[in-house]
Amino acid sequence: MDSKEIIKIREQAELARKEGRNEKAMSLMKEYLSLVHPSFTHYCWFFIAEILLEKNKITEALEHCDEALRIMKDFIPGLELRIKIHKSMGNFPEAKKDQTTIDDIQAREKKKWDDPNHYYHYK
Questions:
Q1: Nearest-angstrom CA–CA distance, 65 and 88
Q2: What Gene3D superfamilies does the database record attribute to this sequence (predicted)?
Q3: Is residue 100 assigned to a domain?
Q4: Residue 19 placed within a domain
Q5: Is 21 within a domain?
Q6: 87: CATH
C-alpha cells in the first residue's frame, strides 16, 4: 500500500468521527496505526482515547491516552485529555501532576519566545 492510500485511511477516520460514526472512525484509525511507524502515531492514540472517553470507557481511554503521551510526552492535548480522564475517575492528584506538566511546558515555550536570541526568532 502506498503512502497516499495510508493517508486516505486516516482522513476517512477523521471524516467518520465528524459524522458521528465513532466505531468506524476507531476501526479506520486502528488500521492506520497498523500501517505507519509508531513515532508518528501520538495523535492517533489521542483520537481513539477521545472517542473511548465519549463512550464512557474510561480505563481504555486512559490506556490510549497514556500511549499517546508515551510517544510524545509534551503533547498538550493528550495531557489535557488525561486530566479530564483522571478527574472523571476521581484521581485529582494525577490530574494536578498533568496540569503542572502543562504549566511547565508552557513556561519553557514562553521563555523561548521571550528570548530575542533564541533560534525561534531567526529567519
A1: 14
A2: Tetratricopeptide repeat domain
A3: yes
A4: no
A5: no
A6: 1.25.40.10
Domain hosting 80: range is 37-121
Whole-number pLDDT of residue 27:
97
Q: Please tell me the total count of domains within the chain.
A: 1
Question: 118: which DSSP letter?
Answer: S
pLDDT, tens digit, 9 for 90 and up, residues 64-108: 999 999 999 999 999 999 999 999 999 999 999 999 999 999 999
> Which grid cell sits at 30?
486502528
pTM to 2 decimal places: 0.85
Residue indicated by cell numbers 489535557: 80
Residue 120 has a pLDDT of 67
User: What proportion of the chain, given as a percentage, has pLDDT over 70?
Assistant: 97
Assigned C-alpha cell, 14: 477523521
pLDDT at 119 over 90: no
| Measured distance CA(76)–CA(6) in Å, rounded | 26
- Contact assessment for residue 87 and residue 68, using Cβ atoms and an 8 Å cutoff: no
